[in-house]
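Why do we bother with a discrete structure alphabet at all? Because it lets us treat a fold like text: something you can write down, compare, and reason about line by line. To make this less abstract, here is a complete entry for Acyl-ACP thioesterase. Read it the way you would read a sentence in a foreign language you are learning: slowly, and without expecting to understand everything at once.
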Amino acid sequence: MQQTDQPTGLAKVLMPVPDPHPDVFDRQWPLRVADIDRRGRLRMDAAARHIQDIGQDQLREMGYEATHPLWIVRRTMMDLIAPVQFQDMLRVRRWCSGTSNRWCEMRVRIDGKRSGGLIESEAFWININRETQGPARISEDFLAGLKRTTSVDRLRWKAYLKAGGREDAAEIHEYPVRFTDIDLFDHMNNAVYWSVVEDYLSSYPDLLAAPLRVTLEHDAAVALGDKLEIVSHVHPAGSTDRFGSELADRAVRTLTYLVGEEVKAIAAIFAL
């Protein structure tokens, strides 16, 4: 089963869930109060934690948590199709949409069973060697299991986003890095980058009124003590062919995560 939908890049069509399928990992848990905004919507930083959590659960149940314990996410694409609401029961499904011998792309679909809410996501995960902290080969038996939901077996990394500068920014603000933001790799956890997106969207609530895609790419780690600045740009419709011809008809907003002059991450936000 191969993801062959076009277009690619920021406007790519995400692989649909192959359901029913024995290799789609399928779990449920309730949406709790720590994961919602003031209106009861499942926040994106909380969704990012759910995406991490089901990945760890799947590793454990497949029997690979001991041999493949460490993964770093390079990119996550998240589509907010409809809001998932407080007190809903989440159905979370995870499956592979592309492989290589050191990394893979994993799809996660989060359904609100009662509210009809829906978040679709795809993340590019790199298997990490504990000693070298570099990419490590995925074992053949693990890889064989991943390939059962996709025939994409030569996945390559290609960045979709370019950083914005301070000189023409719409806004610049500092984002404090807290001790509790730091994870096992001694850098700011992936989910915290999505808190930055939520903070930005809180000033533009109209953006959440329609289906929305947010893509976040990580370039370098943010450490405790770093002075992190968020540099935002608004690219109006008609000027956005730099993001692909499919997006030229809509505005694209970007957030560049900077420490000094070093780019740490970039996010793009646009309506679907």
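What the structure line is telling us, in plain words: The radius of gyration is 18 Å. Confidence is low (pLDDT under 50) at residues 1-5.
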